[in-house]
Amino acid sequence: MESAGNRAWVLLGVGVLSALAALFGPSESLAGVDLGATGATLFMLTLGAAIWLFAARGEAVFPDYMSVAERRAWVSLVFLGVMIAAFAKEMWTLSAHAIVPDGISDLFARRFIERYVALVIAWSLIAYLIGRRDGGVEADERDLRLRHRADRAGDLALTLIVIGGIAVLASTPAPSLAWWLQPIVLANVLIGLLMAKILVEQLMLAYSYRFQSGGA
Question: What is the pTM of this model?
């Protein structure tokens, strides 16, 4: 397990660094190197290497005591972190536009295909490969109990976010809300709320597995 586990940690480190370079790297080249393009290329290569590792030695990446559901929870947390960072970067870029794009083709089409679709495909493949050799056992009673707890935490978080949003809408002058209420912006804000809910669920799952389920 150690060899595959160490490789997974290396890929995780390289993936996070390359994702940060791709998302937040300077627009100008440094010493002749375009950090954004280089980071994006390295990140895609890292995703490919991760898929290969899980396909070849998926059962050896995690400790034996981890269930399939727990392994998937940790993988989901990593992918969600990258996706939310990408989402935040896109929203920051959007906020700098003097005129809000009025169609999906003007805003997210190319970046969505290049980033989100690739991430979702890699996430789905790795999640499948994690449980491929475990006899079809997806979750036991403990996993279902922790999943239920995580779902409740996600529902509570979404409720609090919606209540906070209503409070902001009620207390903010209409001219200040005009930008946020543009259809294309509002649609992406709703996507962000859904991602935040799922992130809370995965954080609760990871916390429960790490500190409350008796795992080593």
Answer: 0.80
